[in-house]
């Protein structure tokens, strides 16, 4: 996917969209883990199989979601995972309110690199940025090399919520974005009668687990 024009509008809310109240969310992780596919699944409800076309640069999609009866506007930035674009994508971390950090459960290197990604995030992003770890391609159980438990353990170590997703089947894709939207809405202005919101507890209570093969 070619996303060279950061100022491009790629669908979502339509005319009259108020960009001043957008919550910026960024997708990050190694090349090929499924960032673009995850966003396409969330935005358009589809998965485009076939040859892999690496993202060039960075681009965004606006999306309005309804959380607890309120509209929350997400501006979701899809970054290129390839090393050569890192200096470009780093510049976008600073304004992000949330980061979805992906690895591929069939690719050990992408999981091992999560620590380096978290170091970069902590160096470049806001201190209170919301981070969620996602183990994508959970549908490819025959090629799994990273167990759910490994993902859980790493997420616990860094104190971030975790779930496995599939951009192909849609498993947990909407939940990942809705949970982020719920947290950002909660932070933006808690109503007096609103109970406190714990993102990790919410994710744990809502997420679907792959029906088999959580061990490798
Ligand atoms: N089976 C399966 N394949 C997936 C999934 N997500 C992505 N893919 C495939 O993995 C390949 C890479 O997906 P992309 O979404 O382009 O990966 P990316 O992280 O955006 O890659 P960069 O743009 O280079 O950073 C493509 O061939 C996708 O079809 C998934 O959940 N399940």
From TrEMBL:
The first-level EC class reads hydrolase
Q: Which EC number(s) are documented for this chain?
A: 3.6.5.2
Query: What cofactor is this protein dependent on?
Result: Mg(2+)
| GO function terms (MF aspect) | G protein activity; GTP binding; metal ion binding
The answer to keyword ATP-binding applying to this record is no
Top-rank taxon = Eukaryota
- Known catalysed reaction(s)? GTP + H2O = GDP + phosphate + H(+)
InterPro entries membership: P-loop_NTPase (IPR027417), Small_GTP-bd (IPR005225), Small_GTPase (IPR001806)
CDD domains associated with the record: Rab26
- UniProt KW keywords: GTP-binding, Hydrolase, Lipoprotein, Magnesium, Metal-binding, Nucleotide-binding, Prenylation, Protein transport, Transport
Q: Name one GO biological process term.
A: protein transport
List the SUPFAM superfamilies hit by this protein, alphabetically.
Answer: P-loop containing nucleoside triphosphate hydrolases
- Keyword Cell membrane recorded: no
| Similarity section | Belongs to the small GTPase superfamily. Rab family.
Protein's recorded name:
small monomeric GTPase
Which organism is this entry from?
Prolemur simus
